[in-house]
Amino acid sequence: MPFQIIRNDITRVKADAIVNTANPKPCFMRGTDGAIYAAAGKELLLAARRRIGDIAPGQAAYTDAFALQAKYIIHTVGPEWTGGERGERDLLRSCYANSLDLAAKLKCSSIAFPLISSGVYGFPEEEALNIALSEIGEFLLTHEMDVFLVVLNRNALKLSEALLGDIEQYIDDHSASGLLKKEYGGDVLYARRRENRPTPPANDVLYEKSSSACDYGIEEETDGVSICGAFTSPEMPIGARKSLDEVLKDTGETFQQRLLRLIDESGMDDVTVYKKANIDRKVFSRIRCREDYRPKKKTAVAFAIALELDLPTTRDLLSRAEIAFSPSSRFDLIVTYFIDHKIYDIFKLNAALFRYGEQTLGE
Q: Residue 75 belongs to what domain range?
């Protein structure tokens, strides 16, 4: 996928260009700067850096990468945070924009960034992340390049406390156990078996919070969809029922057909959609050429986010690939939180998924 957040030591990442949060003067200090010099070869890199001279905050220059698994090191000087009244945010945006533009001029196919200025320079980590995601996203709308944001651990991605709190509450309210707790109350959940459903031996079932309601065939219906992920509908009158042959003749649109129709209806072109979905151009070409294309779940959901679909339309699109949301999947609950709240920024959603240890969207 064009953009990925990865856990790694940036000096070990394989990419055409590695971004160094450089000192303005031709010297190196601690943090990412010192680690890159040590891994590349201090004397060789320092000599190359001296040939460049001073670099102003927000600007970028490059050297060879020497012992790193890269072709180039792009040196950019991040702003030191002094309260936000001296243009720090604009300078940080320039760090990303100038580094990406330089990588494009060098014909790089991939580039790896640390979270610039979020360490010793004291830039607020939440703002640093938002600026990084915004600038990288803007660049990828018009360029073909693989961009990595490299962090040492998941906690390094500081999402807002309000957003994290809302997601946690949403997960609690919409998970399978949460829905049952809302219905029956208390720490121990009671449920009476429903007609024609498999049940444990007794009519009244006593089970722990961790038990899956779907194990006992118990469903809580919300907006026409059971928490087990199945669509519900009124019983069809016997006379109106179709034969198996009739049903098989009327299978409806495939995932590919429905996706292409939704793209046409959106008013966006293909390129805009697959870039907003964090999907590689070659993957989209395969989808367009194959009517029977079966996407991975993260790919199908990425298109729903790019097209800014509501939840019923998203469920319908996914069902064309035999994919459903589950109330017992944290990945699904985080995705549906963003759709419910009309937050269609795939990079911000991926940051939240990464923060919770879930796979990110795109392909």
A: 3-156
Which of 156, 177, 210 finishes a domain? 156
The catalytically annotated residue of 33, 146, 173, 292 is 33
Measured CA to CA, the distance from residue 15 to residue 112 in angstroms comes to: 6
Provide the mean pLDDT of the chain.
Answer: 85
- Of 171, 357, 183, the C-alpha closest to 192 is 183
Report the amino acid identity of residue 153.
N
What tokens does 316 get? 């319908």
Is 340 annotated in the active site?
no
Residue 21 in any domain: the answer is yes
Calpha distance 332→257 (Å, rounded): 24
* Domain endpoint, select from 122, 156, 190: 156
Q: What is the pLDDT of residues 54-96, one digit of tens each?
A: 999 999 999 999 999 999 999 999 999 999 899 999 999 999 9
Residue 323 scores a pLDDT above 70: yes
Cα separation, 171 vs 94, whole angstroms: 37
Of the chain, the percentage scoring pLDDT greater than 70 comes to 79
**Residues 134 and 255 placed together within one structural domain of the fold:** no
